[in-house]
Each structure stands twice: as structure tokens, then as C-alpha cells.
Amino acid sequence: xxxxxxxxxxxxxxxxxxxxxxxxxxxxxxxxxxxxxxxxxxxxxxxxxxxxxxxxxxxxxxxxxxxxxxxxxxxxxxxxxxxxxxxxxxxxxxxxxxxxxxxxxxxxxxxxxxxxxxxxxxx
Length: 123
Fold this sequence. Notes:
The protein has one helix spanning 21-29; strands spanning 3-8, 11-17, 32-35, 37-38, 42-46, 58-61, 65-69, 74-78, 90-102, 117-122. It is globular, with a radius of gyration of 13 Å. The chain starts with a strand and ends with a strand. It is mainly β. It has one domain: Beta Barrel (Cyclophilin), CATH 2.40.100.20. β7 and β8 form a beta hairpin. Strands 1, 2, 3, 4, 5, 6, 7, 8, 9 and 10 form a ten-stranded antiparallel β-sheet that branches.
């Protein structure tokens, strides 16, 4: 089982990688730094990862799932409603590859602000 640590501003969490090609690509790219962006109740940040859309890619996430947005080369952490949401769902802008599961409450990412530094590393 492989675990990563994501630190954004003063917020951090660990996540367990799934057995997917995208998870493997993220693991190989570690460690890396980026800057946070927010979109509703979603934090995303650029990642030096290349991946193609996987067969089970989707827009609607469950709280705690961590995804890679192939169109924007970014990791996305949705923790609530976004401008694309219908009702209370966590809907990202387009289909993404879910590659990890948070080992904590992703709602703590509500404290992250645009431009906050992000570090992703092996835990």
C-alpha cells in the first residue's frame, strides 16, 4: 500500500493510492511543489504528471476521492459543491481519473486559499 502526503498552506492530509496507471504516474513524479487554485469547494493544483483518461473516469466524486484532471494536468480534491454541481454532489469540470483515497477529512481543505503553496510527497 502506497501513501502520499499533500500539504496545502497549513492544511495537510495523507492519501492511499489505488492500483491505477494514474496512481503509478503520480508516485513516480514525487515529490513536487505547486500552487493551489480553488473552484467552489474544490482545491486543485498542477502536477508534473502525464496520464490518459482511464475507462472509469468520471466527473462526480465521492467525498475523500482524489482525482487527476488529464485535460489540465492537475490533481483535484473536491470536498463539496463546485460551480458545476447539481444539488449537493461533488462535480468536477470534466471527467477525471480517481487515483487515491484520503485518510482523513478532505473538508479541512476549505481553509486553502488561491496561491497557497502545495507540496506532494511520499508519506
